[in-house]
Write a structure and sequence with these properties.
This protein is an alpha/beta fold. It has a single domain, classed as Rossmann fold, CATH 3.40.50.880. Helix content is about 20%, strand content about 25%.
Amino acid sequence: MYPKGKIIISGHTITQEYDETGAVVKRSIATNHLFQLISHEKEHRIEIVSSASKDCEELLKACCESLLQSKHTHFGIININKADDEYNSRICNANTIILIGEPSEIYSFFCAGFLTELVYSTYLTDENFTLIGINTAAMALSDLMIGTKKAEAGLGLIKNCFINLPFGNHSDFKKLIKTVLSHQNYLGVNINGDMSITIERGFKTLCKGTGSVMIINAREVSSKSLKPFKRGASLYVKNLKGQILVDGSRVDLRTGNIIKPDKFDFNLNFTNRNSII
């Protein structure tokens, strides 16, 4: 059974403007494009699930402003650091859920409230349901996510993929490659810059934005070619594949293969159109 719901993963969305001295004069977060695919029906309910950390405050504010600009007024904020008996029912009734925060905190929140099964069931059966993961929060959507020392359990909505989104000046790209090599049936999905991917039916993925997506595929790597990882050393692995995707690219997350656009049918069948009767 293919999921009827939709997942949107958004990469880094913060832009900064500098003066002649190099000082930041303007800092903004562009989130409007994330909500173009959300229903504008009056009763469409949106819940933003976020931690209360300072890193999330700026992004949370930008999301709320973008929702209002997009004429979405039926939304609420769920603070995962505060207990509330109404959270479960609010998530149960949500048509769209937006995730902001650390992936481990997002995972713990959903597991503690027994919400993982509920959200997954809605994702499988409701074609109007959308789940949006912004920046690092999106990493929690996979069945496994990159941990500090090893792969850790995720929410399981995306199968057989490790999601990686660099944050600030920090990137775990090398850790992503090492994790994929240790779990060769998994793909690595690295999202850079202002890029979003939309996943439908659980595997059909469309890239939108000015950034890029790197797909890492180690399924043809022989165990004989793998050597122990050494910290700080270069990594060379035979048959390790990588593909760079840009705006408009489509990929199958089951195989890592590019989905080619349907060919236009040039057979216009004019044979009998000008016949004289």
